[in-house]
Amino acid sequence: MIPSNQDIAALVRGDSVHKSVYTDPVLFQLEMERIYGQAWIYVGHDSQVKNVGDYHTTRLGDQDVIMVRGANKQVNVLYNRCPHKGAKLVADGDGNVGKFFRCPYHAWTFRLDGEHLSAPLKSGFEGTCYDPRHPDFQMVSVARVESYRGFVFASQAAHGPDLKTFLGGVISSIDNLCDRSPVGEVEVAGGVFRVMQRSNWKVFYENLHDTMHARVTHESSFEAARSEASAIGEMPFELLIMDGNGEPYDFWEKLELRAYHNGHGYMEGIFDPAAATRDPVSRAHFQALSEAHGEDRAREILGMNRHNTVIYGSGSPHTVFQQFRVIRPVSVDRTLVEIQTFRLKGAPDEVFDRALTYANVINSPSSNVMPDDVEVYARCQEGNLTRGGDWISMHRYAGSDTELPDGAVSTNGTSELPMRNQFAAWKHFMTATLIAKESTHAA
Ligand code: FES
Ligand SMILES: [Fe+2]
User: Which residues cross the membrane (predicted)?
Assistant: First the structure.
């Protein structure tokens, strides 16, 4: 039975949340309709479909979609369904379909914007209602598609705020990721990693700004990095990025967390940008940016020091090391994460090499760090299936957050504000028919 809006609202309190939001398949299905059916969701980057006919498949919630470069060079986002018998027109992944889609089942064809082109043996339709111009015979486009600096988002709702309004202040993270390129452009490069997590999708979003877990969950990896550094007498980048999780609690408390409307937010960077400019890779990067924009602007761009950003429902860009972890719910207890790495066009090759190293060491399936997280997410999923209690605490620093003039909220780095903010947005999406800009922050 579908729960009422009142029942759903009762699952989220200002300082705690009912565990069924992670375990109930009915709520999961409602999330697919009410969150993923309304919000702007990141589809992919337009560099993944450079040429006419290039496509990239992904999912908007439970909906298989194709991002494809059309004949007019525009990027289209279409449901991956042939209107004949419903077959998926392209296999999951990336490729090029040429000038049109051709269904693998009975060879109906479609233009790259989804318009029906032809069906074999037309004579068989004579005297029937078959009409190639009728919507029943077209591929269907997702209701709205917008791109911001090459990042393509789609919304399945015909109405609602535009992409920029939806993203609000968190758009600054996309800007900074692009601005780090001397020509202001980025591209997905070096392939992508995919990891299937045995946990609900929301757990990962909450963890992205959960600083209290770092020195506990990652103890084995940061201790290993420290012991290796002491054995070799230096702390190279590969070890430095593992070592960061071992900072003491007072370090994390001083970091800023910022929460925006619609569940978005970011966490301040954990690696000192001033120290970073002393290494040769950062110096070369600074040099290239200075040549393009002058030293002051280069300093400003590289000085924007952010660790994980959350674009709720889409995933997590990491601006400093050029990643985007795309988070895709698969079922109530399965989440597929695709890790994209970006090349900053016009930046020295070493900067891209460093981004790949970060992806390998921190985010890849064979990372020394991410399996720590994936293990605790699965434990949360399994623990919440027991009868050992019903509520999940998000009390830390509840009620002490500072509202900023632009409507964002800032707080101590160990606060559970991000989780409260995400669940306020969750509650709003799940109980409102359209996304409103107001009232998505926790009370
Ligand atoms: S299912 Fe596509 S042509 Fe028949
Ligand atoms: Fe972690």
Answer: none
Please give the residue that has the higher pLDDT: either 401 or 74: 74
Ligand 1 atom nearest to 104, measured from its CA: 2
In the sheet that holds 54-60, the strands lie side by side as 75-79, 63-69, 54-60, 94-96
Position 3 in a domain: no
CATH at residue 76: 2.102.10.10
Say how many domains are in the chain: 2
Separation of alpha carbons 389 and 158, rounded Å: 40
pLDDT at residue 433 in the model:
59
Q: Does residue 106 have its Cβ closer than 6 Å to ligand 1?
A: yes
Q: How far is CA 134 from the centre of its chain?
A: 36
Q: Is 337 a member of any domain? A: yes
Q: Is 369 in the pocket of ligand 1 (CB under 6 A)?
A: no
Atom of ligand 1 nearest to the CA of 103: 2
Q: Give, for ligand 1, the residue of 105, 116, 125 to mutate: max count of ligand atoms closer than 8 Å to Cβ.
A: 105
Above pLDDT 90, what percent of the chain?
91
Indicate the angle between helix axes 280-293 and 295-303, nearest 10 degrees: 130
Ligand 1 pocket residue status of 82, Cβ below 6 Å: yes
Nearest CA, atom 1, ligand 1 = 85
Residues 292 and 335 in one domain: yes
Q: Where are the alpha helices (DSSP H) in 191-304?
A: 201-207, 214-217, 219-232, 237-243, 249-254, 273-276, 280-293, 295-303
Q: Is the predicted pLDDT of residue 114 greater than 70, yes or no?
A: yes
Task: Tell me, using a 6 A CB cutoff, whether residue 104 lines ligand 1.
Answer: no
Are both 134 and 168 inside the same structural domain?
A: no
Residue nearest atom 3 of ligand 1, based on CA coordinates: 106
Domain that holds residue 133: 41-148
Ligand with the closest atom to the CA of 203: 2
